[in-house]
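Action item from last meeting closed. Structure (354 res):
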């Protein structure tokens, strides 16, 4: 019964989502789980506020369309007027995107539909999801909480409980972002829906970035393979040593992750099913990470998973990667492409592997 309810919820979200045909020059920046608060110590966003504002203002503001894929405001902890007062410059940027018809704002479970905002003067139209049409297929964006059966059965009750008791009492670890079982269940249900319907689907909700339906272990396997392929082509001994140390580090992470898997889920490495994973599930991550923020870009027929960081709080900018980090705005902020792929290639794999 619950599986049928989830499928119906995902199908209803898909059917209710507006359709936009991507034009050749369109560029999209997709963010989720920003969790704007009131600036107090309970505001998870505040430590990344300057980085996020500058990235949005100086990089994405002119040429990109902005997709805010749920949980943009933290309305389960704070009232909208307090959020608007604290982050007026960021919300002002959202409004500029909206005024130029470049904003798509999607409902999350922490910034739910209009019934919670009726008396707060909320300025944005909230969408259930978004369907982006490209020549080779369709991209479906939704926040991801639609896969949670409790949210489908008791949405207003859950919001009331969280707003009235859970957050005021400081109970933090209830959410999917802190629970690997809930993360897996969310991803698996949406993965199955996307695979069956041949959709490239982008979610948020779990706070962990995903690219091509790959788990952390699969991604590390892929990185090791890529480094092994370029090792013999590298002549500089310092760079070869860097590759060797990076492979050793990744192998240690793999061993640690596999050793702990039995304590978490007792799942196979390919958690979404046997065989080759269908590259239909993506996640833009969140803007409340300790060292930086992640998003997804779509442009020129490609999709990118992007990390924006502050070198004062993370060492990712100095780690070996297939794509070099690019400095942005000042000596501390940088952009890092974690993964990229052609959309037509991904849709071919979705078609052939489903």
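Sequence:
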């Amino acid at each position: 019964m619950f599986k049928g309810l989830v499928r119906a919820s995902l199908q209803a979200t898909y059917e209710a989502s507006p359709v936009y045909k991507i034009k050749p020059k369109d560029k999209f920046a997709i963010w989720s789980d920003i969790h704007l608060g009131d600036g107090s110590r309970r505001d998870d966003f505040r430590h990344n506020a300057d980085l996020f504002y500058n990235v949005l203002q100086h990089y994405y503001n002119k040429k990109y369309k902005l997709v805010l894929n749920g949980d943009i405001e933290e309305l389960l902890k704070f009232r909208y007027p307090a959020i608007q007062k604290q982050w007026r410059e960021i919300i002002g940027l959202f409004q500029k995107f909206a005024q130029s018809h470049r904003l798509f704002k999607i409902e999350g479970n922490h910034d739910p539909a209009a019934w919670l905002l009726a008396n707060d003067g909320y300025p944005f139209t909230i969408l259930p999801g978004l369907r982006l049409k490209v020549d080779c297929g369709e991209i479906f964006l939704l926040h991801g909480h639609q896969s949670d059966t409790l949210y489908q059965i008791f949405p207003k009750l859950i919001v009331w409980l969280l707003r009235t008791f859970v957050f005021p009492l400081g109970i933090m670890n209830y959410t999917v972002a802190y629970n690997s079982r809930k993360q897996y269940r969310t991803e698996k249900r949406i993965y199955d829906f996307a695979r069956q319907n041949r959709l490239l689907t982008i979610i948020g909700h779990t706070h962990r970035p995903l690219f091509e339906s790959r788990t952390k272990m699969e991604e590390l396997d892929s990185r090791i393979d890529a480094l092994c392929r370029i090792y013999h082509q590298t002549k500089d001994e310092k760079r070869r040593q860097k590759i060797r140390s990076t492979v050793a580090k990744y192998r240690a992470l793999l061993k640690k992750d596999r050793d702990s898997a039995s304590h978490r889920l007792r799942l196979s490495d390919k958690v979404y099913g046997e065989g080759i994973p269908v590259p239909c599930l993506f996640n833009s991550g969140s803007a409340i990470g300790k060292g930086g923020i992640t998003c997804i870009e779509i442009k020129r027929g490609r999709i990118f998973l992007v990390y924006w960081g502050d070198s004062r709080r993370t060492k990712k900018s100095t780690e070996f990667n297939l794509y070099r980090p690019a400095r942005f705005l000042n000596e501390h902020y940088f952009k890092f492409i974690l993964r990229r792929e052609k959309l037509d290639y991904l849709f071919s794999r979705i078609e052939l592997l489903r």
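Note appended to the action item: DSSP finds ten helices and twelve strands in the chain.
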